[in-house]
Known about the structure:
Elements: E1 4-5, E2 9-10, E3 15-17, E4 24-28, E5 31-37, E6 52-61, E7 64-70, E8 92-95, E9 99-104, E10 107-112, E11 119-123, E12 126-131, E13 137-140, E14 146-153, E15 160-164, E16 175-179, E17 194-200, E18 204-208, E19 214-218, E20 225-231, E21 234-241, H1 245-256, E22 269-272, H2 281-293, E23 300-303, H3 326-334, E24 339-344, E25 347-348, H4 353-361, E26 383-384, H5 390-406, E27 410-413, H6 431-454, E28 476-477, H7 485-499, E29 506-507, E30 509-510, H8 519-530, E31 535-537, H9 551-566, H10 568-581, E32 586-587, H11 589-592, E33 606-608, E34 612-614, E35 623-635, E36 641-651, E37 659-661, E38 666-669, E39 684-688, E40 697-702, E41 708-717, E42 720-726, E43 732-736, E44 741-744, E45 750-754
Parallel strand pairs: 22-23, 22-31, 23-24, 24-27, 28-29, 30-31, 39-43
Antiparallel strand pairs: 1-2, 3-13, 4-5, 5-6, 6-7, 7-21, 8-9, 9-10, 10-11, 11-12, 13-14, 14-20, 15-17, 16-19, 17-18, 18-21, 19-20, 25-26, 32-33, 33-34, 34-37, 35-36, 35-37, 38-39, 40-41, 41-42, 42-45, 43-44
Helix pairs in contact: 5-6, 8-9
Amino acid sequence: MKFSDGYWRLREGVHAAYPQGVLDVETGPGTLTVHAPTHPVRHRGDLLKGPALTLTCTAPMPDVIAVRITHFAGGVERGPSFEIAHETYDAEVSCDDGEARLTSGALSVRFARTGPWRMDFEAAGHTLTSSGVKDTGIMETADGGHHLRERLALRVGTSVYGLGERFGPLVRNGQAVDIWNADGGTATEQAYKNIPFLLTDAGYGVFVDHPGRVSFEVGSEAVSRIQFSAEDQELTYYVIHGPTPKDILRRYTALTGRPALPPAWSFGLWLSTSFTTSYDEETVTGFVDGMAERALPLSVFHFDCFWMREYQWCDFTWDPRVFPDPAGMLRRLRERGLKISVWINPYIGQRSPLFAEGKAAGHLLKRPDGSVWQCDLWQPGMALVDFTSPAARAWYAAKLTALLDMGVDCFKTDFGERVPLDVVYADGSDPERMHNYYTHLYNRTVHEALSERRGEREAVVFARSATAGGQQYPVHWGGDCESTYEAMAESLRGGLSLGLSGFGFWSHDIGGFEGTPDPALFKRWIAFGLLSSHSRLHGSSSYRVPWLFDEESVEVLRHFTRLKLRLMPYLYEAARQAHTEGIPVMRAMVLEFPDDPGCAGLERQYMLGGDLLVAPVFDDEGEVTYYVPEGVWTHVPSGRTVRGPRWVRETHGFHSVPLLARPGAVIPFGAADDRPDTDWADGVTLRVYEPAAGRPVTVRVPRPDGTTAATFTVVRDGAVLRAEAAGTSAPWRLEVVGGPSAEAAAGTAVLTVPLPLSGGGLDLSSSGA
């Protein structure tokens, strides 16, 4: 929210009160409390008036500092609140006449006790950011709103990222962002997944611990400040030290939760019936047969909304006119090795039998007068499940359990953004605070139902909306995009931004949702979709089976699906890193190369895991321009090399996309390309790209359950490459890309291959494909 009118004045009706300096300081074990009047204290008479602010600093874990700003402390605490992990940790506190300081690991917050108001956050002898005169404040607006605002210095050259899945420019500098979930598609400033967390490339991130509307002005209202505000009497935020962006994500997800590890089968190709298309078992079987006949590996079949009867979403009952034998159909599909997903949402239409059932039991969200809240903006007369009620959650989960027992494997948890404010929650939660948080309870309810019935390693949802902490319940997809190259680029920006906001897994509708892509766009989107963490063919009013576009689409889909399946040992290890560390599978370039200024604003390319660079093609003719960081990179399909740092311009056919291996990478390729959940260590090929002398590389090949099947250590020793295997008796292969290879029979623990005498890579100066 903007409060100022230029540099000197406030907007009409806005009244502000800012800390003028430190009056006194209280210290305790791991706690520093600063009292700050908002007017100068010249004599004792100035101590008789207010307002005054209290800032309380604590440390939930090393390298993280929490600051709570309080005006009036007498309010009634109404939920919800984010679930924050706190370690047993006492920060170091010191105070003298000149300063008060709290230190958490390498991070300190320092208050100047004399002179004008100033609060600095320091690490390694440097000031990361600071809040000075007229930065912290009470902002009262003409409509009676009481806002607490903080502004932190935005240093020269600092780029800001995150704040959820945002579809505009990846770098947030110059943007105004309201953290408020909305069902607005992918082409505007609205977003389905709003996260009050930002990350910088200057050694710190900021998480605002407020589940309701938080307004961010990032180098916009004040161009050298990161500003955030909320309408409340107390506001808590965390400054999180890195120093690297990866370190910041590790600590942020340690605070708010790390993603569950999705099952290996979920990384295969998903095929949907699409939204308003007509389908029955014959149609579904025809799609599955068509995929099999064309040797297109399929892992999951998804039934979208019309698996249920019209006007009765959700009643969790198969439409008997279309699916007379749903249990038999599901059995027949599962016998073909498929997993089954069905669409659900948290709304109950008035014609659904569950409406009367939920109303009678008190499971539906109510208005202040006790009536059920209803509207017509989706299903006629729809109501919302009140997920703050344990009984309502159990009721909803029981409906899902019945479907799981029938043969369903997972759920697409759509919607959850259109949450009203004129309501009363069962647990007394504040409606404004619950607006964004509602989706968290919704997706947690579904994910926990899956975990309880299928086991933790089999639980996966396909969710659209989220708030902070929602990363614990993957997977999330990008929402309703159009079938255009512009929307494809919007989707990528959204996914990279979400990854920089703590979410490890992300997908999107291949070909776009609204409209029907032309064959060229569809084929370009296939490459992007299969080189994402999760891959789904889905549309609104048209099918997405490739043979309806052209035969080349079939070939392109087969090529990239099989490539992804061979990459599964690499991808699932990246997934495990997302699960254990909070580092996303799809990574903005700045996450891997924070010290390369050329990577700061890159938003049309990304790293898939730590070692593969992907640059989707956003052009019918195949022209693409991308940036290569320092070192000799290798095109994975062709083995050609390019030396960075430099920009590269190429032209690619539909079977190709810039996919480059990082210098020194050792990438495990599985032997199977027909399904995602095989024994990846059996017959694995270790492809070594531009190995550097004396730098051992450890490659962990996981099992589909997330445990380790084999560990390989690869090191270049002069003109010889040596690989040692541990934990496996299966055959494996060592291959130097552009050089020799060697086969290891079952039980072989050590392989060596000679390296070419020339060494090094070729610096390409041409732009061919």
